[in-house]
Design brief:
Length: about 240
């Protein structure tokens, strides 16, 4: 992929998906994959995305001591995106399967990432995971991070906070990849089932891959809750350590 020396992100994102069903809030997409040079196993995959939007409570009237931004933020709707991925092995052989998402977020001034993790894969010179090292929970400004790493022991919840939005990320997965390219105006917080390059490790199953028997299924889900920043709902106040409160 690109100028990277290794395969990245699987094949699903490089294929056309069919719309199986859709209404005003939910869409289900399907993919039937035949063995090819990119992936030598047959499978069927399905994605179901459901968007829920709820009106926020009416904002208080602005005043000289309460910036109008507070009111406009409070009036923005809250949204929740549920995203389910399912894969069924239609190949006659046992198939290694891993699932994940690669959501991009806008980097704004003061954007922070928070996530409870226990360890991080250090990389070798080619960018592959080489050594698992203990790591404290993530709680940092994106501007201070230089990451393209997989974290283990993720508790299934993360948070992206800036002056406009408070985004809660939840997932059934136990690993999290964080990508903070500089000086790009985006970054990624990626729930995944497995460590990068797990398929080439000595024990792929111990690092999150599933070995699907013919006809068996694997699934994972992610949920994004998006609302106005807590900084706005608290009239722009910040705690001494800079975290939105």
């Amino acid at each position: 992929f690109g100028d990277h020396p290794h395969s990245l992100h699987g094949v699903g994102w490089q294929r056309s998906w069919d719309v199986l069903a859709a209404d005003e809030s939910t869409i289900t997409l399907g993919l039937t994959h035949a063995p090819d040079a990119d992936w030598p196993f047959a499978f069927e995959a399905r994605q179901t995305l459901t968007l829920e939007v709820a009106d926020a409570p009416a904002a208080p009237a602005s005043s000289p001591t309460a910036p109008s931004a507070v009111a406009s933020a409070a009036q923005r709707p809250h949204a929740t995106l549920h995203w389910l991925i399912e894969v069924r092995n239609t190949d006659p052989r046992i198939q290694p399967v891993g699932l994940g998402w690669h959501p991009y977020f806008v980097r704004r001034l003061g954007t922070r990432i928070q996530a409870s993790v226990r360890s991080r894969w250090a990389q070798d010179a080619s960018g592959l995971p080489a050594e698992l090292r203990s790591h404290s929970p993530l709680d940092a400004s994106v501007a201070d991070l230089a990451l393209d790493h997989c974290f283990e022991g993720w508790g299934g919840e993360a948070r992206v906070i800036d002056e406009l939005q408070d985004i809660r990320i939840r997932s059934s997965t136990s690993r999290l990849v964080v990508f903070t390219p500089n000086p790009a105006q985006h970054f990624c917080v990626e729930p995944v089932t497995h460590a990068n390059n797990a398929i080439q490790m000595s024990d792929p199953l111990a690092h999150g891959l599933a070995a699907l028997q013919p006809g068996d299924c694997a699934s994972a889900w992610m949920r994004l809750d998006i609302g106005p920043s807590d900084a706005f709902s608290a009239a722009g106040q910040q705690s001494p350590d800079g975290l939105m409160t």
